[in-house]
Amino acid sequence: MRLRPSLLACALLLAPALAGAEPPPYRGMQEILDAAPAGDWRELDPERTLYLELEAGRVVIELAPGFAPEHVANIRTLAAGGFWDGAHVYRVQDNFVVQFGDAHADDPARARPLGSARTKLPAEFERDAAGLDFDALPDADGWAPEVGFADGFPAARDPAAGKAWLAHCYGMVGAARDMAPDTSTGGELYVVIGQAPRQLDRNITLVGRVVQGMELLSSLPRGPEPMGFLEDPARWVPIRAVRLAASVPEAGRERLQLLRTGTATFRELVESRRNRRDGFYVRPAGHIDLCNVPLPVRRAPD
Predict the structure, then answer these.
(1) Which pLDDT score is estimated for 298?
(2) d(Cα 159, Cα 130) in Å, to the nearest integer?
(3) Which of 43, 47, 140, 270 is the most core-located residue (most Cβ within 10 A)?
(4) For 229, which DSSP code?
(5) Range(s) for CATH 2.40.100.10 in the chain?
(6) Residue 92: which of 192, 164, 242 has the closest Cα?
(7) Calpha distance 120→178 (Å, rounded)
(8) Strands of 135-136's sheet, edge to edge?
(9) PROSITE patterns this protein is in (predicted)?
């Protein structure tokens, strides 16, 4: 009999007890993170980090050039040219996305100039899986043959087709487009603030994820039905600036570290969420969804 992946984790967990040995002591998420070796954390790279400055504070976005290199390059150019300075958050759709950029992008007479950025980019919905370090979850997924983490991002892959792609989990950042797949410039970006819309995977280019400041976006007042677009400009949320972290003086940068997903620490963390054995849980789930796996971020120790 072949065990399903989700049951395999349970079997491995119960094996010591079935053999008469004491199971390893259960550690909660914070205990695991507190005991993580320094080498299990990686520094946030300022060359692939974007700061979205709102009146309420700073949103920190880690970019994903390994999956969307041409979009990320254009985003860097747009940020260097001040494209988003004075732009707005103009869409807040409940249980879906926050969208920001140029509210007049569809009006040639009023659209913001893109400067030296490219006006046309290819769709970057997926990439070749060859050579990609992929930390697979054992759990089944309804949207892809395999799911896990690549380059620190929630991702999926199809080994038979040799393709991999990023997943629309909470906090992921995508590049809005029109009907044609290649109509995104990276100037209009959205952040997932609701239930993971995985049906969008491989249909829109994902360019990164928010690693700090999600509460500044997810708490914004919702726009009207059906799409959440804020038709009244008085309700638009001003953007002070968007900058690449590398262009910000070091004293003004966020000193953040992210847990590496290829470590024993991360594997234990995932298992602690898959089969929680603290006093509250009467029945461990024995399964975890890709978008429910925490991706820890912390301030770098002094």
Answers:
(1) 98
(2) 9
(3) 270
(4) B
(5) 45-256
(6) 192
(7) 12
(8) 127-128, 163-166, 153-158, 146-150, 135-136
(9) CSA_PPIASE_2
Q: Measure the N-to-C terminal CA separation of the chain; round to a whole number of Å.
A: 52
Nearest to 291 by CA among 154, 117, 192, 180: 154
The whole-angstrom separation of Cα 3 and Cα 23 is 21
- C-alpha pair distances (Å), 265 with each of 20, 116, 218, 271, 284: 26, 43, 29, 10, 20
Instruction: Give the angle subtended at the CA of 298 by the CAs of 293 and 300, to the nearest 5°.
Output: 150
pLDDT for residue 26: 82
Confidence of residue 7 (pLDDT cuts 50, 70, 90): very low
Cα 66–Cα 144–Cα 271 angle in degrees, nearest 5? 85
The letter for the amino acid at 149 is: F
Instruction: Give the Cβ contact number of residue 214 at 10 Å.
Output: 18
- Strands 163-166 and 297-299, sheet pairing: unpaired
Give the residue-averaged pLDDT of 184-208. Answer: 98
pLDDT at 21 (0 to 100): 61
Query: What is the residue type of 125?
Result: F
Which pLDDT does position 132 carry in this prediction?
97
Average pLDDT over residues 208-219: 98
CB 89 within 8 A of CB 98: yes
List Cβ<8 Å contacts ≥24 apart for 297-301: 297/211, 297/212, 297/256, 297/257, 297/258, 297/259, 298/33, 298/41, 298/256, 298/257, 299/254, 299/255, 299/256, 299/257, 300/43, 300/255, 300/256, 300/257, 301/38
- pTM, to two decimals: 0.91
Residue 109 in this model has a pLDDT that exceeds 50: yes
- Cα distance between residue 54 and residue 121, in whole Å: 27
